[in-house]
Amino acid sequence: VSEIPESKCDVLIIGAGPAGLMTATWMARCGINARIVDKRNTKIFSGQADGLQMRSLEIFDSFGFCDRAWKEANHMIEMCMWNPGPDGVIRRSDRVSDVPVGLSRFTQIVLHQGRIERFFLDHIKKYSKDLIKVERAVLPDSLEIDEKLAGDHSPTSYPIKVTLRHLTEEEATPAQSNGSSVSDGLFRSNLADDDTDDLIRKSQGKEGTMEIVRAKYMVGCDGAHSWTRRQLGFQLEGEPTDFIWGVLDVIPITDFPDIRMRCAVHSAESGSLMVIPRENKLVRLYIQLTEVKPDTSGRADRSRINPEMIIKAAQKILSPYKLTYEHCDWWTAYQIGQRVGTNFDYRSRVFLAGDAVHTHSPKAGQGMNVSMQDAFNLGWKLGLVVKGIARPSILKTYQSERRRIAQDLIDFDHKFSRLFSGKPAKDLLDETGVSMAEFKEAFVKGNMFASGLSVDYGASMLVAKAGDAAEQGDGTDVSSKNEVISKQDLATNIKIGMRLPSFKVLNQADARPWHFQERLKSDGRFRLILFAGNVLSPTQKKRLDAFCSTLDASRFLKPHLYKDIDILTCHSAKRTDTELLRDFPDILHPFDVRTGWDYDSVYVDDVSYHEGYSDAYRGYGVDKETGCVVIARPDQYVGFIGELSGEGMREVEGYFRGIFVG
Ligand code: FAD
After folding, report:
1. How far is the CA of 18 from the centre of ligand 1 (A)?
2. Quick check: 620 and 443 in contact, CB under 8 A?
3. Is 286 a catalytic residue?
4. Which of 604, 660, 606 is nearest to 631 (CA)?
């Protein structure tokens, strides 16, 4: 009998959808020995999720591939609401901005999941030097966790044992839906050029074989029917819904005037429809199918659903406008529960992310975004722990931070679904119908959540703010709080626990304007941000010097500088009256014998030649004279705010002592 081959890796990722690829991206950026496997034999090429929130775009930009999505996508600017008039005929009743104005340098865009996966794959290839590749047609067969080793975080401890099975081509090809000539999800005629290689799966000659992988950590990103979740015995809690959704990606032929706008259409008697204008003249229609009802088991017979049936439902809702199509790119129908996982991790060794821990309806375009953002929260923490930089206890903050977001997502979806699916109220006295004013208000309010920018992480060892995490209902061990407490009033618009907002500032050395957030790259490093204030004032210069010399003298922090903690400065004196080399201590723009001074770390809040004045200090709510110091985590969420002084520096050290191993 031949032995099953065995190997080791630091992190094993199950599933290569948006959550798995985001995890793998962090592994590539942090230089971790990771593997990622997926049971399907190819990536997806069309359909599924398509909306990208502003926060997701900021995250893509922090990795450096947002430009690809921004160029290829359709940009959604306005949302139109269509409702029945007194005669029962639909008419445009309102227009609002698609996203809240002024919150981000991005707006919401639409591009299908397959392209997003492409960008991730290319990025992972580049940063892992082709070492991390999605291993396709691979299915995990068994999971064992050595309970004794699970608590041992020494570098030689591999508590996880997974047996993997390499599938045959047939086993790895997902079945298509019945009753249609159009493929659902693997329709291949519209492949982008750079996707073609992915279809030619290079056989490793391993089909039908088994292997054993021993890992330090494992992340289950294996979707709503997560195998990993089932192995751990964890549940998704919540309610199934009766709503059956039809989704059609077509090139529409229509006289409906707002077909290139995002629309919510409520008809008087025929149900509701959401219009999402897409790239390449495509339009996605989300339609609630009222004619298909779940049976006694709670499941609907999806084989009865086909594109013809979905378009007929759409035609009724949009009547008297006409709607047909010649080209259907993709379609699906599904019934989805609104559920959240009971646990997001097992002993800080096995984690669940994305659809594996939350499911909900697709209308608000949240699924892919929240899934990627789960993994964005987890990946750098794993990276720092595997590298021995951060204490393993930071991994507990994954569940405390993300479970609350998943719960918020379900609550949001619940509310929005009811308003979207309900019949419009006939008049003010009609209490059973949905008032359109209420729908609009919920949309505008919900938009803040849906932008991804309202995420506010509670107090923990990574977020030094008052109030204990347990009070916030997320069950975090209070003892794991960071002992340092921030001074929120020093930067009133930089909220501790939220992502650092962005304003334009100029590079001190070359006067080029930058969005400050662009300088916060996702490279696994914390950012120590010095709002240096008016460096031309002698008192302020003294405070800055005191901060820098205490930093320079810190035996604890010095070995981490630039390697694990990057330093950024933004001052408020006049650019033309200040000099990089004269007015700023060397530690803020270090010298390297091979590459000279660092010209990319000091910025100024001043007027630009071509892009006006952003008044960043005012935007951030920071005093222009005295400034402050801010610590942003590797994911750009704010961990600490303190004074720019020797005392403030000791707090900075205290913050990092709570996180770093030594
Ligand atoms: P997924 O994208 O589901 O990725 C999971 C990956 O894990 C898959 O590649 C799968 O092959 C793999 N996998 C699963 N089990 C195993 C296993 N045992 N071993 C190895 N690999 C495994 N969202 C919207 O916003 N709008 C939509 O219209 C929409 N339509 C959708 C239609 C369909 C058919 C599906 C499935 C999803 C749709 N979604 C939609 C949801 C959206 O795609 C998800 O929210 C998002 O992809 C979640 O990302 P994820 O990485 O968590 O999971």
Report:
1. 8
2. no
3. yes
4. 660
pLDDT along the chain (662 residues), means of 10: 88 97 98 96 77 96 98 96 94 93 94 94 98 96 96 94 90 57 40 56 73 98 96 90 84 98 93 93 90 67 83 96 96 83 96 94 81 98 97 96 91 79 73 77 81 93 79 48 91 97 97 98 98 98 96 96 98 98 98 97 98 97 98 98 94 97 84
The predicted pLDDT at position 472 comes to 43
Residue among 610, 611, 619, 526 at smallest CA distance from 572: 619
CA 658 to chain centre: 26
User: 659: Cβ below 6 Å to ligand 1?
Assistant: no
Residue 52 in contact with ligand 1 by CB distance below 6 A: no
- Nearest CA to 515 among 14, 62, 1? 62
pLDDT digits (tens, 9 = 90+) for 272-325: 999 999 999 999 999 988 777 666 666 666 677 899 999 999 999 999 999 999
Amino acid at 339: R
Tokens matching residue 285: 């229609």
pLDDT tens digits for range 523-547: 999 999 999 999 999 999 999 999 9
Beta carbon of 247 within 6 Å of any ligand 1 atom: yes
Ligand 1 atom closest to Cα of residue 174:
11
Helix (H) or strand (E) holding 196: helix 196-199
Whole-angstrom distance, CA of residue 216 vs CA of residue 241: 38
Nearest to 311 by CA among 323, 319, 299: 323
Q: Phi then psi for 649, rounded to 5 degrees?
A: -65, -40
Which of 127, 217, 286, 620 is catalytic? The answer is 286
Candidates 176, 222, 336, 413: which one to mutate for ligand 1, based on the most atoms within 8 Å of Cβ? 222
Q: Which atom of ligand 1 is least distant from the CA of 38? A: 21
The pLDDT of residue 322 is 98
Please indicate whether residue 50 is annotated as part of the active site.
yes
Strands 262-266 and 78-84: parallel
Say if CB 27 and CB 233 are below 8 A apart. Answer: no
**Is 590 considered catalytic here?**
no
Q: 223 C-alpha vs ligand 1 centroid, how far in Å?
A: 5
Mutate to test the pocket of ligand 1, among 143, 187, 355, 410 (most ligand atoms within 8 A of CB): 355
Does residue 16's CB lie within 6 angstroms of at least one atom of ligand 1? yes
Concerning whether 278 is annotated as a catalytic residue, the answer is yes
Instruction: Say if strands 526-533 and 565-571 run parallel, antiparallel, or are unpaired.
Output: parallel
Q: Could you tell me which residues come within 8 angstroms of residue 485 by beta carbon, excluding any fewer than 6 positions away?
A: 464, 465, 466
20 lines ligand 1 (CB under 6 A): yes
Q: How far apart are CA 461 and CA 458, in angstroms?
A: 10
| Domains of the chain and any CATH numbers | 6-74+108-237+338-403 (3.50.50.60), 469-657 (3.40.30.20)
Q: How far apart are CA 584 and CA 578, in angstroms?
A: 9
CA distances from 61 to 47, 70, 277, 542, 593 (A): 23, 10, 23, 36, 31
Residue closest via CA to ligand 1's atom 40 equals 49
3-state class of 405 per DSSP? helix
ipTM of the complex in this document? 0.97
